[in-house]
Design a protein that fits this description.
This protein is an alpha+beta fold and 364 residues long. The chain contains nine helices and 21 strands. The strands form four sheets. A six-stranded mixed β-sheet has the order 7-8-9-3-10-11, with helices on both faces. Strand 13 and strand 14 form a beta hairpin. The chain is elongated and about 80 Å long. The two termini are 29 Å apart. The relative contact order is 0.11.
Amino acid sequence: MTTVLRARVGVQLGRLDLDVELTADDGEVVALLGPNGAGKTTVLRALAGLQPLDHGRIEVDGQILDAPEGTDASAPVFVPPDRRPIGLVFQDYLLFPRMSALDNVAFGLRARGRSRADARTAAAAWLQRLDLADHAGARPAALSGGQAQRVALARALATEPRLLLLDEPLAALDARARIQVRAELRRHLAMFPGARLLVTHDLLDAVVLADRLVVVENGRVTQTGSPAEVAAHPRSPYVADLVGVNLLHGHGTAADSADRVVTIAGTGARLTVADPVPAGEVAVVVRPQAVALHLEQPAGSPRNTWATTVAEVVPNGDRVRVHLAGELPLVAEVTPAALAELALVPGTPVWASLKAVDVAVHAR
């Protein structure tokens, strides 16, 4: 498979110290995922040429687009945005309000030197492909959110870019529209043969739309992999919280089958696990649903029991997340009925239990 994008994006912007390495292959959808302020949109702006690099290099199909330090054979390179084989769909779409959908799509082609008639013919073909032919004469204010997004997508694709960038493509939509447009967007992205890179902070958008996730936190890549790999093996508290699991860091002791133990970093607390433990630094993943809460010390099979205190109670859909304080700061998830039965409020002393089979351990 051909690698379309190879980039190291180094930008110093206020307090943001960004240093992110990225690749994207032909036909691949890569989601850049991370919290607000992590540097995701700055990466997209740098790739598009709207934010020059301070260091690093951007290449598309082997062509250097930005190399502030130059190469062994050349002086510094900077290709302006309108000469890059890159299409960009902005978060708010940025359609020209006084132009029709057809003229919005034709704009990028006209900017690249195509005649008016040729640009409008190509724009009409793209509107047809995206099921917008009936709205060619409509101005943006007359379009739904999903239709406006497709016009913006058509405008970006009409220039036949090798790399398509999408900045929070569903953020401008309400919750009801997102469900339908998310499915439509996946279908439309499949029509584009180049590499696709989308920025989002929404895990569901990333899981549905992307083949591979790249997690960026504080200007650095902290994890990369398929959606399933990232969800199963979170490498940071941000990712763990995003996928709804507890993440602890610790040290594994590869003991015999009767004593497989992980010592939690910073607290000295110990968890017994069911499977062999890698020696050295490990990540410990626990599903909140696996943490049971009791008013008295439990008897029976759980290998891990400890006294703790309720720190916070947070409704979460049809469940309630109970944050626990102490050496094992885990989150348990219970039903509203269980919450009422146990009378759990911040400060309530409880016992927690966790079966060894419900503790997953991964080498770091």
